[in-house]
Backbone:
């Protein structure tokens, strides 16, 4: 991506459906007993990978990318295996484990790959499934799970893991009897998954709080469901508007989802207008240095850390950005430094001393949100920045350059020679 920086972004963009909601929601179709229709499914690399994975099991997948609609029919599923070649690029593939073992009594899923932002084990997913009665074995890089029928139980998560909460929730809806899931993640994407499952006939209460109660059913029906807007995409465009000294409105997003980030924009000097269907940000001069610490929802999301840091690189003063969710999520720091920013990493914290100006340079994306951070910094910098390896960006942002251009940014996708 070639960026000529220095322009204040102005205007409005429509937010796509949330990647992190669409992934588990599409997987949940495994549990249905007929075709499920999902609207507002973003056309992203991760979604295409998941579509391939599901099709590989025999699921009939009809993804109309232009309409952002996916119709998934699980009645033709003939395999309960997720092979390494398909799983290695995307950690979310592990979501199929719970639903497969719940519905078919067996699953063979490769251990996941995904972004290189930490060790990211799946122990909470596995112990959760064991609590519901699954037998788990690890063999040659694969997880083998078996159960005659899962049985409801109390599952207390050691940490409110988003993926583990989703996986175990999907397993519990077909388990026999009641499951009580404790210390659950409370992200809006979990609430969305529960809505989709409920539309299929699942009995779930308490999603969005730390305790979720599920009364298992013998079978589920089918569903029609619309995915929620992507709060991280929304936050990324707002950060870009803020960092460039502009005014950006994002449409198609409930401001509640992004509240932990909005208060930080305000603390850093932005004016924010909130709505059920939009967020508008107006910057008022240079951002003020503001500290953030990432935490599970409703804390500041780790998926916004890199983008917020990009805005802090040109802030007035020094800010401390602390990452508590993942142990290796500062890979954007050396690249931001190439653009002239002053950042020192000490353990879990990065001390960002705001500069008046950044200067364009060639940089390299290392993971999904890091690439967004580099684009934001490039938009602030004087002169030209090229961000390479933007396949990371394509995993999670739909038509980002088109949306940025609509806000007046000078960005262009050029081939890498
Ligand atoms: C999800 C999101 C990701 C986001 C993250 C935290 C999707 C597809 N991805 O990832 O974008 O950054 O939530 O908001 O929704 N952990 C374990 N053992 C486990 C599971 C997790 O130790 O079994 C650790 C992880 O290594 C990490 C922390 O728990 O340090 C949080 O991970 P988790 O909430 O599970 O994140 P993901 O579901 O992988």
Residues:
């Amino acid at each position: 991506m070639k960026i000529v920086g220095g322009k204040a972004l102005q205007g409005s963009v429509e937010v796509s459906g949330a990647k992190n909601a669409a992934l588990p929601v599409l997987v949940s179709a495994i549990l249905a007993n007929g075709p499920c229709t999902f609207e507002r499914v973003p056309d992203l690399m991760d979604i295409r990978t998941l579509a391939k994975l599901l099709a590989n099991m025999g699921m009939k997948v009809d993804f109309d990318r232009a309409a952002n609609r996916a119709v998934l029919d699980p009645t033709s599923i003939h395999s309960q295996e997720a092979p390494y070649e398909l799983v290695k690029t995307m950690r979310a593939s592990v979501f199929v484990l719970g639903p497969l073992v719940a519905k078919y009594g067996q699953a063979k899923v490769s251990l996941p790959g995904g972004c290189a932002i930490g060790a990211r084990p799946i122990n909470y997913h596995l112990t959760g499934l064991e609590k519901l009665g699954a037998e788990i074995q690890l063999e040659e890089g694969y997880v083998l799970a078996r159960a005659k029928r899962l049985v409801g139980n109390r599952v207390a998560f050691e940490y409110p893991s988003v993926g583990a909460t989703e996986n175990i929730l999907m397993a519990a809806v077909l388990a026999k009897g009641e499951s009580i899931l404790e210390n659950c993640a409370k992200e809006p994407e979990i609430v969305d998954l529960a809505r989709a499952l409920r539309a299929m006939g699942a009995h779930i209460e308490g999603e969005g709080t730390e305790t979720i109660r599920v009364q298992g059913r013998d079978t589920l029906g089918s569903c029609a469901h619309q995915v929620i807007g992507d709060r991280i995409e929304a936050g990324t465009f707002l950060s870009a508007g803020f960092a460039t000294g502009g005014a950006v409105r994002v449409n198609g997003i409930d401001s509640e989802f992004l509240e932990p980030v909005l208060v930080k924009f305000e603390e850093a000097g932005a004016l924010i207008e909130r709505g059920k269907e939009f967020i508008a940000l107006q910057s008022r001069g240079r951002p003020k240095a503001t500290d953030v610490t990432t935490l599970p929802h409703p804390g500041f999301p780790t998926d916004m850390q890199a983008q917020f840091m990009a805005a802090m690189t040109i802030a007035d003063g020094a800010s401390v950005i602390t990452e508590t969710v993942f142990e290796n999520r500062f890979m954007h720091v050396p690249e931001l430094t190439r653009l002239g920013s002053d950042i020192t990493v000490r353990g879990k914290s990065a001390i960002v001393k705001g500069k008046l100006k950044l200067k364009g340079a060639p940089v390299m994306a290392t993971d999904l949100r890091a690439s967004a951070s580099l684009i934001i910094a490039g938009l602030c910098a004087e002169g030209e920045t090229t961000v390479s390896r933007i396949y990371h960006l394509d995993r999670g942002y739909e038509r980002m350059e088109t949306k940025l251009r609509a806000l007046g940014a000078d960005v262009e996708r050029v081939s890498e020679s």
Residues 363 and 387 are 5 Å apart (CA to CA).
